[in-house]
Every structure is written in C-alpha cells, then in structure tokens.
Amino acid sequence: MKNSKLLLTSALVGTVAMGAIANAETKISGSATYTYSSISGATAAASKQGAGKEVQIDISNSSTLENGVGFSAGFSLEQDGTESSLDPNEGNFMKFTSGDTSVMWNMDKAANLSASAAPRASTSIHTMMQGVGTFSFDYSPGGQFQQSSWNVEVAQKIGGGTAYLVYVPRTKDAGGKNDNVDPEGDGTQLDLIYKGNFGVDGLNVLLGYTKTDAKDATLQDNKATVIGASYNFGNIAAGFNRISQDQGDSTDDSSMEYGITYAVNDKTTVGVLYAKTDNNGTADEEITAVQVGYNLGALTVEAYGVQVENLNGSSSAVDQEKFGLRLGTKF
Fold first, then answer.
1. Alpha helices in the chain (DSSP H)
2. In whole angstroms, what is the distance from residue 91 CA to residue 190 CA?
3. Do the Cβ atoms of 277 and 246 come closer than 8 Å?
4. Exposed/middle/buried for 243, CB within 10 Å: 0-12, 13-18, 19+?
5. All domains of the chain, ordered by start, with CATH?
6. Mean pLDDT of 78-86
7. Is the pTM of this model over 0.90?
8. Distance CA 92, CA 60 (A)
9. 268-310: pLDDT as tens digits
C-alpha cells in the first residue's frame, strides 16, 4: 500500500510538472557589451588602456496559474571580463501578478536605487569611472546589499508610476545549495521607491528611501534618501538626482548629479553629466562627463569622456581622465 501511494504521488507530481511546462511560454534572450577604454592616471604607471566585456544569457517563462494569477520566473547567466565561469546569481526571480499588484521573490531583480532621474546619452557615471580609482560618488545607496541578497518585492501601480516596497530578511544572503542555508548574513534592509511621472507626460520622477540595519552595536543604521526628477522638452531632456546618506560610521555625505541630453535625430543623442559629492573630505569631488549614443538597430555605439577632480574628496589628488567606447547588442 505504501508503495502504491508513493507511485501515485510521484505520478501526480509528474503530471503537475508537465502541465506547468506545457502551459508556460519560455524565452531565451541575452546581451553582449564590448568596450575599449583608456585612463590617464596620476602617474605614468597608473595610466592604462584595454578592452572589456560583459555577456549575459537570460532565461524566463510566463504563464497564468489555475487560480488566474499571472506567474513568471527566470534567471540569468553572466560573465564579465576573464571570469572562468558564468555567474548564476543574476536576475533570479519568481513573480506573481494580480491586476496592478505584483509580489516577487528574487535576487538581483527588484527595483533599487542604482537608477537615476538624471538623463544620460550613454552609461552611468559609476560605470564610466571604473578603473579610475577609489571615488566617493555613490550611485546606489544600499543597492549592492539588496542586489546580492534574496529579497521580496511588492510593486503597486499608482499615480502614473509604480511604488515598490523591497524587504531583505538577511543582507549578504546569497542562498544555500538547494534546501541548505547560506551561513553568511547580517541584518535586514528596507527600500521604499517610487518611479513614474505622476500622470504628467514628459516628467520622470524618482523617490527613494533605504534603511540597512547596523552590523553590530558599535555602529548606527545606514539610511539614505534619493530625490530626482527630469523633464523632456521634445529633443531636450534635463534633470537632477540627489542622494543624501546617514552612514553607519556616523558620517554623512551627499551627491548631486545633473544631466542634460539632446536628441540630434532619432538615432543620435548627445549628453553632458556633472556630479558633485561631499563626503567629509578636504574638498568636494567633481565628475564631469560628455557622452554620445548612436542607435544602429541591432547595434548600439556609445562613446564618452569623463574627468574627475579632487578624487575621493582629496584636494591634493591629481585630476584624472578616461575615454571609452562601448558596442552593445541584444539577442
């Protein structure tokens, strides 16, 4: 009798699994970005140039459950530079949607504060600054903890946009093997984010608050707020993004990013970015960038030049420059 029950249970599980596969729409897509950049460092030894890459495969499915709830799930495999294997900790998620509300269990998929309301013609300041040195501009307060930890996101469409509540039960929890538990982990994190236009065409608003529990009793909680907005005036878009942080080591800092872009035509956009950061250094760090983006359909071409003064808030730091070219495609 026990064996009969086991066989019956196995058959039912198999039937349910086959039904889910049959009713789900599976998609495989990906992207590849190849770069070449040069850095003019503080010394001849610090100056360098070379190639870079980032390739990614995305696998997902979507369906409607028997109870009428929308369901989607997926994961990504990413390889950067000379990494010897694909990183499986990218874009893992299971998402349930009903009307204008969705709930998602995920890692590296939820809304986060690495976004900016300042318009750009190419990539972010953070990406352009890679390899230059230790800089104080923080593009993503709390974002790295959230993106590298399993979390739950509740999203609600409202007021011409979407409001997000993201809760991380244990920061640094990358997940254990199968039913095992990852031994690493700190306190919790909470993000409250709004992205939208409040019903005004051409307007783009970003509002955010994040709080990460202190690692131990000697530190205070890390808190940050983000306020950003931009407006599209036809071919011209202009805006700002302000980040204020109350950090765990009892220091405060703030960054202000401004951006303006001009669409030369439907394929070419040029832009200028400027960021200023006060991180309790001897001088405010200032980053200025010029960008050009060109869309060839299957291929995007981006070029940029970025300069930093008072790197990491040091008035004695030598100004540094970086120039980059990015070729991107999706499939």
1. 2-23, 125-128, 143-147
2. 19
3. no
4. buried
5. 34-80+89-296+304-330 (2.40.160.10)
6. 86
7. no
8. 9
9. 999 999 999 998 778 999 999 999 999 999 999 999 999 999 9
